[in-house]
Specification:
single chain; about 160 residues; mainly alpha; 9 helices
Length: about 160
């Protein structure tokens, strides 16, 4: 997939944030129709590690990512489980490689962002997880859970990027 322009990311993000609950339900039905494997992944991800509110946020952000990427001229094909778990394994390996060393985390994040095809989507997602805006929306994310949530969301981005 071509890199999604920043204008598309910003416009879609604002559109979803201002969406009514009814429109939100329609969007969930649409992602279930177009990307059932991804929706199931988002609903099940972190089941034992994340709180209910963290999991709700994960689904919310995953839906935003899908919606942004489905706005492009070449929509992603349906993601299958093989693609999903291949990407998840690669992202988990990256997380293990980076580890907990602050310098390696910073260097690893910088290298990832320098070469990442969907930089705008990933940047917006990371910023949302890290900012206090999440608290203003009623989401409390434990610091130690932000990394794994990012891995789940990057997996979704990677799958949609490859499926296009």
């Amino acid at each position: 997939m071509n890199t999604v322009p920043l204008t598309t990311v910003e416009r879609t993000w604002r559109e979803i944030e201002s969406m009514s609950p009814v429109k939100g339900e329609e969007l969930i039905k649409l992602i279930n129709k177009e990307q059932p494997v991804l929706l199931a992944y988002l609903l099940a991800a972190g089941e034992k590690m994340l709180s209910e509110r963290e999991r709700e946020l994960l689904v919310y952000l995953g839906v935003i990512v899908w919606r942004i990427m489905s706005q492009e001229a070449k929509k992603p094909a349906k993601v299958n489980e093989n693609l999903l778990f291949t990407n998840e394994d690669a992202n988990l390996a990256l997380l293990r490689k980076i580890g907990k060393d602050r310098d390696r985390i910073t260097a690893g994040a910088a290298a990832l962002l320098d070469n990442y095809n969907q930089l705008h989507i990933l940047s917006y997602t990371v910023n949302f997880l890290m900012e206090d805006a999440t608290r203003a929306k009623g989401f409390q994310i434990r610091e130690e859970k932000k990394g794994i949530m990012m891995i789940y969301l990057k997996t979704v981005i990677d799958c949609l990027d490859e499926a296009a």
